[in-house]
Design a protein that fits this description.
The chain is of the alpha/beta class and 620 residues long. 40% of the residues lie in helices and 11% in strands. The strands form 5 sheets. The protein has an 8-stranded parallel barrel with strand order 10-11-12-13-14-15-16-17, surrounded by 6 helices. Strands 1-2-5 form a 3-stranded antiparallel β-sheet. The chain has a two-stranded antiparallel sheet with strand order 3-4. Strand 16, helix 17 and strand 17 form a beta-alpha-beta unit. Helix 11 packs parallel to helix 14, helix 17 runs parallel beside helix 18 and helix 19 packs antiparallel against helix 20. The termini are far apart. The relative contact order is 0.11. It binds iron/sulfur cluster (SF4). The site of iron/sulfur cluster has 7 residues, from helix 22.
Length: 620
């Protein structure tokens, strides 16, 4: 049993999660219904305050402003009427969709002997999440992946769900808020309107994935692809020296509140199986893992790894509901010598483990030689691949070298082989890359990997950002996402320094949300600028509450503003403490505009006067 976690069955979860739970400020949770009642797509609606104006006779009037719809990753945690019981998990919103397809069996018990042993070990009772439903697996001879259905021409409820989610009710937005620069999309094919058929087509051709394991029925489906909104992932997970299950659950809830689209549980310390179960059962977003970490934990050392242990770990995690696996199958034996002259060698945990295994046995990477067997497991539960970049550069000096691109080329081969099994795929990318060398990564990935979604860690644009690496990574992330990356993995301020805590997660998520959003705008994604336009109008009209509520981190914006102007009345001020009342450029510009309008009014009246004959009194 863990030395860190309390008895999770008696823990006061409500108190623990209170800071990251409850509605967003100034916002309503709304649901857009699809073609059936169970397709309820969550969105956040920021309720705006009215604009203060004056009528023709100078009387003050309030002109209403429309609510602004935002993409919402937070799940039921921000729904005012939701009853959250962490011990029971979230409602299985997808379960009926999965069952009605008629292609899964319910298993009487987990297939993995290791999973069975964990579920029956009395010592684990205080940290165990009690099983809530039976394991589902594809019926023999069938595949249950979204790609399989898409290729058969079937639009699943998951596809309809993401089409509504990505559209964000754009057709209801006022034209003034739709003002947008055309952007430069580097060859992406973003339609004006995202339809379920477009989603199906993108998934069928492998250009997008919907990570949605049949055993993770709690998720609100989302899509990762170059022609959709750029997504971000937040890594959580304990290590051998820090954290507990309750802290990791808390980080997950915090991450999705701040905007994480997926969460990777990279636990490598105590109770990995149990930690994951608590996270998955309470996660409305897809969960990714690196199964190798747990396989290593089971055998103790890289050399001891076997295909059998690894395979059992894959099945154990697939039956828990993990939605995507990072698998370092492109680290081939012959590539290891290519890293010999690097400054920092192999920096990926998974990459270094597999390199060590290959050298110890002098054999080809067993993840590569067993690729088809792995694909069959993935297809039986709909787990997507995130093909690992085990040879990514760990410093600028090693960026874009032979080893890195050799692995990327193999990723392309593995992608095509996975598609033969109808398995959904994304490719992982670097790492540490100077800004001017980032585009080459995107160009090669598009060319070699058949336009499968590219998922990158940053990249970090310099090696000297420790303590601020979330900013460093967001700079590289924004650039590569503009070029076409579909999802960027966040980096926290603790990168290279220690295990992130809850606040680091928040900082990392927000920094990368800004990067992803900046990329959407630069690509010209339809509607990407609506939120910015609403913010700019609120700023120009000194609607402070709207400014706070529309920004990426409302709590922080309010806190910063209130440091110097804390009174409620100061939320009406036509200035802030940055420039002060006499030098507020926004206010000066407003006054100029008012003057110009008044002037225009005077000129119009003078013209009318002249047109009427220039007489002071009109003749009857
Ligand atoms: S005082 Fe300066 S920073 Fe503050 S609202 Fe006015 S122009 Fe903007």
């Amino acid at each position: 049993m863990s030395s860190h976690s309390e008895d999770l069955k008696v823990l006061d979860w409500e108190k623990r999660l209170a800071p990251c739970h409850g509605p967003y400020p100034g916002s309503r949770k709304v649901y857009v219904q699809g073609s059936r009642p169970s397709i309820r797509v969550p969105m956040r609606e920021v309720v705006q305050t009215p604009t203060r104006a004056h009528d023709d006779s100078g009387h003050p009037i309030d002109l209403p402003n429309p609510p602004i719809t935002l993409y919402d990753t937070s799940g039921p945690y921000t729904a005012p009427d939701a009853v959250i019981d962490i011990r029971k998990g979230l409602p299985p919103v997808r379960l009926d969709w999965i069952r009605e397809r008629g292609d899964v069996d319910e298993l009487p018990e987990p297939t993995s002997p290791y999973a069975r042993s964990r579920e029956t070990d009395p010592a684990l009772e205080p940290v165990r999440f009690d099983r809530v439903r039976k394991v589902l697996r594809a019926r023999p001879g069938t595949r249950v992946t979204q790609m399989h259905y898409a290729r058969k021409g079937v639009i699943t409820p998951e596809m309809e769900f993401v089409a509504i989610r990505e559209s964000m009710r754009l057709d209801e937005v006022l034209d003034v808020l739709k003002k947008q620069h055309p952007g430069h999309n580097w060859g992406a094919s973003m339609p004006r309107a995202i339809t379920p058929e477009f989603v199906r087509d993108e998934v069928a051709r492998g250009r997008a994935i919907i990570p949605a394991n049949v055993n993770h029925s709690e998720i609100e489906p989302m899509i990762i692809g170059r022609n959709f909104l750029v997504k971000i992932n937040a890594n959580i997970g304990n290590s051998a020296v820090a954290s507990s299950i309750e802290e990791e659950v808390e980080k997950m809830v915090w991450a999705i509140r701040c905007g994480a689209d997926t969460v990777m549980d990279l636990s490598s310390g105590d109770d990995i199986h149990e930690t994951r179960e608590w996270i998955i059962r309470n996660a409305p977003v897809p969960i990714g893992t690196v199964p190798l970490y747990q396989a290593i934990e089971r055998v103790g050392a890289p050399e001891e790894l076997t295909w059998e242990i690894y395979r059992d770990t894959l099945i154990e995690q697939a039956e828990q509901g993990v939605d995507y696996f990072t698998i370092h199958a492109g680290v081939l034996l012959r590539f290891i010598s290519l890293t010999a002259n690097r400054l920092t060698g192999i920096v990926s945990r998974g990459g270094s483990i597999m390199a060590k295994w290959c050298l110890a046995h002098h054999q080809e990477n067993f993840l590569y030689t067993h690729w088809d067997g792995i694909c069959e497991i993935m297809a039986a539960y709909d787990v997507a691949f995130s093909i690992g970049d085990g040879l990514r550069a760990g410093c600028l000096a090693d960026a874009n070298d032979e080893a890195q691109f050799a692995e990327l080329e193999v990723q392309g081969e593995l992608t095509r082989r996975a598609w033969e099994h109808d398995v959904q795929v994304m490719n992982e990318g670097p790492g540490h890359v100077p800004l001017h060398m980032i585009k080459e990564n995107m160009d090669k990935q598009l060319a070699w990997c058949g336009e499968a979604p590219f998922y990158t860690l940053g990249p970090l644009a310099t090696d000297v950002g420790a303590g601020y690496d979330h900013i460093n990574s967001a700079i590289g992330g924004a650039l590569i996402a503009w070029y076409g990356v579909s999802m960027i993995c966040y980096v926290t301020p603790k990168e290279h320094l220690g295990l992130p805590d809850r606040n680091d997660v928040r900082e990392g998520v927000i920094a990368h949300k800004i990067a992803a959003h900046a990329a959407d705008i630069a690509k010209g994604h339809p509607g990407a600028q609506v939120r910015d336009n609403a913010m700019s109008l609120a700023r120009f009209e000194f609607r402070w509450d709207d400014q706070f509520n529309l920004c990426m981190d409302p709590e922080r914006a309010v806190a910063f503003h209130d440091k110097t102007l804390p009174e409620r009345g100061e939320k009406m001020s036509h200035f802030c403490s940055m420039c002060g009342p006499k030098f507020c450029a926004m206010e000066t510009t407003r006054q100029l505009r008012d003057l110009a309008l008044r002037e225009k009014g005077m000129q119009e009246r003078a013209r009318a006067f002249r047109e009427q004959g220039g007489e002071v009194y009109l003749k009857k």
